[in-house]
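can u do me a favor
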């Protein structure tokens, strides 16, 4: 397996390479999900890429945030720069950017970021069909499911093996965004999940109900490899270089076959450098995580100094093969090869010796590669015994050969700066009103109040939940709304059977892998969880086969107006799903409560109360953390160019409340003045995310 280490700074990059990383991942000056790391300017990034390649390490660059329309051209040009500079891959979250780059910058390899939420064979195949070479899997994917992904898809699989675990499913967290306009999807997450939180009460001084312990798989690497993972990733671009040195060396030695005592010693050092919960196996063997942890560091000055010494000097060397040729009257020649790279250089004219010379003497001088990043594996000689050359000339020949080999090992490609075309949607003739509901009672209220489409997202996906609503399908459409996370094959099969049963007219998907489950339905909608933040992403989803695309909940009024129109849905009412939790903190603290929808309330230190709603699945519940207040822009309906649909989402609302809000949407569509729900927020209508 490839060992991939974090490089949040130049020093951390050196620490990773010198301690044995096969590859590093780093961010440039923009468009990456760790914008508060030191990161790299363009010149620094070029230098870092060259540093890695000369020493035999790959370098992947993060381009893993959602891109707005006004930034899209700049992001595309930056990707072209990465291609020219020799990045071994760009790590991408934005579907539209990925689709664009695959066509316009074809020589730049692309990896699907964990922010894409890939956790199923269908998701992996969808990423592969887009031209992705590798998928960084969701942290929630267990080894048993990873084995199935490996068997079903040709894409390379990368997985996190060490470091911080996000409480929410990656790409599906809006907690920081809604709380303070700092978005994880834009690289500025403020980590409010690490602050005081408690269930159904005000938090005390030790209540951290959303703060997960860290991952540590150093003792389980063989199982990861057996499951089909080709690359293990270490988290930590925000951490100090000494930390990177310690974890990289630990996993390097573990991969190279270190014994249990050595691994135990390394684990102790890693936890001394940074510890949040003592390390766990995450979701690889089921739900193996716990909440309530805060970070601590007990590293000694000696451990930090020892770690720093591992990368003070450039001690990483690549083996080279040499051949020295010396014939009197001809220029001396030195061939040097490293892997596939080969150079041949000529030096001074070889003189006639006054007495026979020893070829080994010249070979010994030729292999003195000193401060270069190379060591000689062998040196073949074709030296005439009457050939003579001053040792200074041999040294010059060797230096020239090493310098030219370094240049040969650099990666450079041709790539023109692409210019994305402008995409503008035209207004739809009429907007459908789509209500997403949790219960049959809510569904009936929505149908009876004028909704054109009702999408049911029940707490448990069964045929029975949909059968009783068939009477309304002669006037409106009944849809199935899918959860963002469907881990087990058993759960996917349950949902697939509903989609092929004839009970529903369409579906709202929440993940790229779900298109395969709903492909034969008449209406296929990409939901708001699929993070459509620009016109290119909307177009990419439609090209995949979606009939309609719901815009991201993080867009402002001008951004919504730029994209709204035919084939687009806009959310106008509902409590935002802030987090998608595969770990049930209620079950951890109280045991399973057999929840049926509403599961409790999460309280923060500011006194806000966030409802928790569950979806019961074959392998455990998916718990959604909802915003403390609903977002309501129903009264601002007329300020948008006519979308194809407006969406309202309901959870704990009574049927009467559902009826009221659906009727308000109908009235707004007809140009009437409506009132918003008391206490509601405007969301990001006037509050752009950073």
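np, heres the sequence
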């Amino acid at each position: 397996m490839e060992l991939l280490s974090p490089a949040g700074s130049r020093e951390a990059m050196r620490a990773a390479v010198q301690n044995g990383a096969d590859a590093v991942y780093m961010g440039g000056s923009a468009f990456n999900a760790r914008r508060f790391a030191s990161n790299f300017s363009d010149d620094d990034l070029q230098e870092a890429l060259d540093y890695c390649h000369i020493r035999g390490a790959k370098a992947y660059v993060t381009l893993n945030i959602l891109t707005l329309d006004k930034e899209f051209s700049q992001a595309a040009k930056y990707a072209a720069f990465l291609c020219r500079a020799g990045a071994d891959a760009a790590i991408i979250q934005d579907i539209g950017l990925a689709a664009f780059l695959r066509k316009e910058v074809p020589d730049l390899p692309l990896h699907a970021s964990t922010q894409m939420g890939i956790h199923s064979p269908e998701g992996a195949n969808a990423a592969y069909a887009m031209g992705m070479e590798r998928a960084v899997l969701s942290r929630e994917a267990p080894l048993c499911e990873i084995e199935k992904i490996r068997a079903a898809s040709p894409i390379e699989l990368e997985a996190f093996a060490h470091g911080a675990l996000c409480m929410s499913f990656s790409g599906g967290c809006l907690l920081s965004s809604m709380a303070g306009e700092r978005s994880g999807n834009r690289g500025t997450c403020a980590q409010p999940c690490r602050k005081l939180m408690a269930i159904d009460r005000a938090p005390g001084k030790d209540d951290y109900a959303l703060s997960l312990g860290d991952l540590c798989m150093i003792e389980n690497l063989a199982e990861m490899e057996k499951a089909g993972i080709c690359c293990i990733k270490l988290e930590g671009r925000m951490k100090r270089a000494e930390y990177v040195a310690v974890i990289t060396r630990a996993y390097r030695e573990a991969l190279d076959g270190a014994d249990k005592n050595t691994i135990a010693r390394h684990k102790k050092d890693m936890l001394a450098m940074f510890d949040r919960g003592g390390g766990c196996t995450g979701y690889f063997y089921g739900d193996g995580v716990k909440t309530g942890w805060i970070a601590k560091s007990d590293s000694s000055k000696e451990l930090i100094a020892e770690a720093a010494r591992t990368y003070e000097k450039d001690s990483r060397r690549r083996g080279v093969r040499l051949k020295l040729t010396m014939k009197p009257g001809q220029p001396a020649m030195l061939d040097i090869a490293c892997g596939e790279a080969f150079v041949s250089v000529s030096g001074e004219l070889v003189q006639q010796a006054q007495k026979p010379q020893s070829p080994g003497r010249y070979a010994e001088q030729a292999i003195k590669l000193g401060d270069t990043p190379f060591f000689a594996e062998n040196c073949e000689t074709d030296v005439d015994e009457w050939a003579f050359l001053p040792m200074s000339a041999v040294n010059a020949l060797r230096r020239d050969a090493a310098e030219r080999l370094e240049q040969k090992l650099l990666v450079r490609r041709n790539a023109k700066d692409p210019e994305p075309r402008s995409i503008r949607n035209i207004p739809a003739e009429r907007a459908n009103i789509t209500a997403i509901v949790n219960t049959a009672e809510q569904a009936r209220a929505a149908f009876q109040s004028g909704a054109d489409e009702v999408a049911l997202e029940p707490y448990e996906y069964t045929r029975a939940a949909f059968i009783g609503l068939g009477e309304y399908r002669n006037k409106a459409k009944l849809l199935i709304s899918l959860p963002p996370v469907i881990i087990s094959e058993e759960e996917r099969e349950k949902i697939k059977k509903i989609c092929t049963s004839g009970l529903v007219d369409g579906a709202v998907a929440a993940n790229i892998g779900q298109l395969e489950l709903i492909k034969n339905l008449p209406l296929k909608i990409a939901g708001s969880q699929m993070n459509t933040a620009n016109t290119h992403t909307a177009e990419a989803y439609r090209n995949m086969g979606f009939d309609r695309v719901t815009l991201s909940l993080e867009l402002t009024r001008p951004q919504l107006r730029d994209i709204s129109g035919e084939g687009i849905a806009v959310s106008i009412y509902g409590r935002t799903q802030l987090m998608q939790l595969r770990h049930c903190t209620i079950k951890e603290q109280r045991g399973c409560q057999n929840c049926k929808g509403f599961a409790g309330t999460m309280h923060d230190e500011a006194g806000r109360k966030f409802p928790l709603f569950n979806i019961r699945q074959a392998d455990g519940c998916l718990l959604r953390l909802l915003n403390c207040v609903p977002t309501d822009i129903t009264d601002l309906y007329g300020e948008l160019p006519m979308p194809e649909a407006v969406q309202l989402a309901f959870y704990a609302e009574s049927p009467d409340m559902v009826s009221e809000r659906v009727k308000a949407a109908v009235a707004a569509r007809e140009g009437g003045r409506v009132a918003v729900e008391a206490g509601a927020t405007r969301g990001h209508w006037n509050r752009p995310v950073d």
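The mean pLDDT is 96. hope that helps!!
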